[in-house]
Amino acid sequence: MELADLEIFCTVAAEQSVTRAAARLQRVQSNVTTRVRGLEQALGTTLFLREGRRMALTPEGEILHGYAQRLLALAEEARQALRPGEPAGRLRLGSMESTAASRLPQPLAQFHQRWPAVALELSTAPSQQLLDRVRDHALDATLVAPYADPATGSDGLDASLQGLPLFTEELVLVLPAAHPEVRGPADVQALPLAAFETGCTYRRLALDWLAPGPPRRVLELGSYHAILACVAAGAAIGVAPHSVLALQREPLQLRTHLLRRVTTLLVRRRGYRSAALDALQAVLAPDLSVKSA
Description:
It is built from 11 helices and 10 strands. By secondary structure, it is of the alpha/beta class. It folds into 3 domains: 78 residues, Winged helix-like DNA-binding domain superfamily/Winged helix DNA-binding domain (Arc Repressor Mutant, subunit A, Orthogonal Bundle); 102 residues, Periplasmic binding protein-like II (D-Maltodextrin-Binding Protein, domain 2), CATH 3.40.190; 96 residues, D-Maltodextrin-Binding Protein, domain 2.
């Protein structure tokens, strides 16, 4: 398998269209079609279901897609390792939604101004999903709050990962304005918890804190805007870092209760280095020298 063929394959899978993939790759459509068919012939299997103009991955294509992404990531990692000087190339950064909104806008603008040759790709998701993507080489690094299990003393990172502490967030329980004062879990009304999907550390910490009470239904929402609106309407309680509440131009009428302080880490694979990631770390943590793994 040629890396160029795998890149074409992954681009078609992402765009679900030969036409859009060809435009993105700056190739003619016939070349993209020929390379995909050649890959299918070489592997002896169909990789795409052709539904009109839409290209959908077959089960075999899904399997190859995972391997192809890792192979392309390793190839890029090798290039980065052999070019330790000027930051350049692609840097795939993951982030929690809250961190992307409250902590990253100014540093990323500064980073782009200083290192325009770096193509920074930012994606957001809950912490556990982001850590899995770093392990799978789908991301180069991520900003997360790993779940530290109090029962085991784990810091939430396995031996394949290393983390650098960057920010400390005040994690708060967000309550409707009319909610009585809260001193402990027993004071919280029996409303559902509005939070992100499973894998969100903040959600898990809130449920841990509420655990002495009866099991609580979780209302899964996709943004802090939706979470806060739901709480303001009196339909739920929520969980969020205080830095997100501070972003509201017109503060909602809410009540908050401090749960705990949580550290956000910049996590990379142990031993992974690139000039682009080191440059980003220097922008995010200018007082900390970049340490070797």
